[in-house]
Amino acid sequence: MDEQTDPVPASASSAGRSGGLDPRAELSEFLRTRRARLKPEDVGLPDFGRHRRVPGLRREELAQLAGVSVAYYTRLEQGNGRNVSAEVLDSIARALRLTGAEHSHLVHLAKPKQQRRKQQPRTQQTRATLRQLLDTMDTVPAYVAGRRSDILAWNRMAAAVFGDWGALPPQERNWARLVFLNPDYRELFVEWDQKTSDMVSFLRWDAGCHPDDPRLAALVGELSVKSEEFRRLWAAHDVKEKSHGVKHIRHPLVGELTLSFETFRLVDDSEQQLVTYHAEPGSPSAEALRLLGSWGADARRATDVSPRSH
After folding, report:
1. What gap in Å lies between CA 147 and CA 287, rounded to an integer?
2. pTM for the full model?
3. What angle do CA 122, 128, 134 make, to 5 degrees?
4. Residue 175 needs a FRET pair 20 to 30 A away by CA distance; which of 4, 32, 83, 162 works?
5. SS3 letters for the chain?
6. Burial level of 277, CB count in 10 A (0-12/13-18/19+)?
C-alpha cells in the first residue's frame, strides 16, 4: 500500500522551545505527577495528618524512600538532572513505583542524548520488502507505524478495518490526529477513552526519546489547541510503549470485532513498529474478518464512512 513521508508542519507549536519540547520542564512535571499519585500508606509511611497541602507524597518523604537528600531530590524535580547518576535514578524509580516504561522515560528526560548539531528530522521510509510482506498478509490487518504515531504503510486488510488511509493527505495519516480529531474513530473504537489514553501515553514516550523533534512539538501543540481531551491526558504525564492487547472495533459494515494485536519493533529501525491484528479462530470476529477480506478497501467505501480529512 501507500507510504508516508514526513510533512512539514503548517505552524509552529507553542508546546516547545526552539522547535522542540523542554526536557527540564518535562522532567519536572513527570516527577511531580508520579509523586502525586502515591499516598504514604502505599509505600509504608505513616500519614500523620488528614489535611496535606500537596496530593500524594511530599518531597521529603520521596527523598527518604529513595535514600537521597531533600535538596538533591528538589533540584532533580526542578528539572536539573544533568549530573544525576544512574544509581540515583534507579532508587527514585523504585521509590515512585515506576513501570519499566516509566523508568526508561525518566532516564530519557534526566539524561537526554546530546545532539551534535541541530538537524531536521529525517524522512521516515519503510523498506520495499516490508511493504511486500504487508501485501502478502492478506488475512491479517497490519500496518507500520513510525515516530509521532505516523502511519507509514499498511495492507488492504488494515484499510478494510480502519479505513482507506490512502484517501487522506500524508499529513493526516497519523493515529493521534485521527483518534482525537476525526469523529469516525470515536465511533470505530468501542473503548475510545482507553484508545485516547494509550495514544497520549505513546506520544509521551516518543517525546522523552526525542524532545528536540519540532514536528512532535507541532503535533502536540495542534492537538492541545483542538482537543480538550488531549490537553487533559497530556497533563497527566502517563507513559507506556505499545506492546500487545485486545481491541474492540465497532465496524460500520460487519458490526463489533474483537481483535488481538501484537507489536513488533524493527531491529534495524527501532522507531518503526509492525502492528498486526487477528481474531480467535472460529469466532464471529474471524468470520467477519474473512468477509472484510473478500471486500478489501471497498468494505469501507461501501459504508460511505471512510476517514475524512479534518
Report:
1. 33
2. 0.81
3. 110
4. 32
5. CCCCCCCCCCCCCCCCECCECCHHHHHHHHHHHHHHCCCHHHHCCCCCCCCCCCCCCCHHHHHHHHCCCHHHHHHHHCCCCCCCCHHHHHHHHHHCCCCHHHHHHHHHHHCCCCCCCCCCCCCCCCCHHHHHHHHHCCCCCEEEECHHHEEEEECHHHHHHHCCHHHCCHHHCEHHHHHHHCHHHHHHECCHHHHHHHHHHHHHHHHHHCCCCHHHHHHHHHHHHHCHHHHHHHHHCCCCCCCEEEEEEEECCCEEEEEEEEEEECCCCCCCEEEEEECCCCCHHHHHHHHHHHHCCHHHHHHCCCCCCC
6. buried
- Are 222 and 13 a contacting pair, CB within 8 Å? yes
Secondary structure in 3-state letters for 91-153: HHHHHCCCCHHHHHHHHHHHCCCCCCCCCCCCCCCCCHHHHHHHHHCCCCCEEEECHHHEEEE
At 2, list the grid cell: 501507500
255 CB neighbour count, 10 Å cutoff: 11
User: pLDDT tens digits for 173-227?
Assistant: 999 999 999 999 999 999 999 999 999 999 999 998 888 889 999 999 999 999 9
Q: What is the Cα–Cα distance from 229 to 220, expressed in whole angstroms?
A: 12
